[in-house]
């Protein structure tokens, strides 16, 4: 009976360790919480990326998503907000992550559409592919 308890305890500890998402905290304040680890290549700021995403304000209100635009988006990674440029470089193709973007790495003191000035933003992002 003791060995069964030991096995169950070990299994519980192991599953708890794997249940926690890996988190990258970048010097800029951007936080990348890896929901699903990818197995493909990692993009650089010079790459074009293909992503599915959903963006929300700090209060949870959705302000944009790739679904609203008909599906995945494709863009040069070096030509978007710093949070995305920094955060997506920490991901691998096939991965999903939650990016927490301080206002300074998003749109700063300027409002854009439904995003008020000085807004911290959150994005759920799936990195589908990388091009050049």
According to CATH, what is the class? Answer: Alpha Beta
Number of strands: 7
Beta fraction: 25-35%
Q: Terminal Cα separation, in Å?
A: 59 Å
- Low-confidence segments, given as residue ranges, are 1-18
Q: Assign the structural class, choosing from mainly alpha, mainly beta, alpha/beta, alpha+beta, or little secondary structure.
A: alpha+beta
Give the count of structural domains: 1
- What would the CATH topology be? Chitinase A, domain 3
**Largest sheet features:** 7 strands, antiparallel
As a percent range, the share of helical residues equals: 10-25%
Describe the protein's architecture and organization:
The protein has 132 residues and is an alpha+beta fold. The protein has a single domain, classed as Chitinase A, domain 3. The chain has two helices and seven strands. Strands 1, 2, 3, 4, 5, 6 and 7 form a seven-stranded antiparallel beta sheet that branches. Strand 1 (23-25) and strand 2 form a beta hairpin. It starts with a helix and ends with a strand. Mean pLDDT is 88; it is low at 1-18.
Helices and strands, with pairings:
Layout: H1 2-19, E1 23-25, E2 31-36, E3 48-57, E4 62-65, E5 73-76, H2 82-88, E6 96-101, E7 121-131
Antiparallel strand pairs: 1-2, 2-6, 3-4, 3-5, 3-7, 6-7
Features:
132 residues; alpha+beta; Chitinase A, domain 3; seven-stranded antiparallel beta sheet; 7 strands; 19% helix
């Amino acid at each position: 009976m003791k060995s069964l308890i030991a096995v169950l305890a070990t299994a519980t500890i192991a599953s708890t360790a794997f249940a926690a998402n890996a988190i990258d905290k970048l010097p800029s304040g951007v936080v990348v919480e890896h929901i699903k680890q990818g197995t493909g290549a990692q993009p650089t700021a010079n790459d074009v990326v293909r992503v599915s995403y959903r963006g929300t304000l700090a209060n949870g209100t959705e302000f944009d998503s790739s679904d609203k635009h008909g599906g995945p988006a494709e863009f040069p990674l070096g030509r978007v907000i710093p949070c995305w440029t920094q955060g997506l470089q920490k991901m691998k193709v096939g991965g999903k992550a939650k990016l927490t973007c301080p206002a300074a790495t998003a749109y700063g003191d300027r409002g854009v559409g439904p995003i008020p000035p000085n807004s911290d933003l959150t994005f759920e992002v799936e990195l589908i592919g990388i091009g050049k």
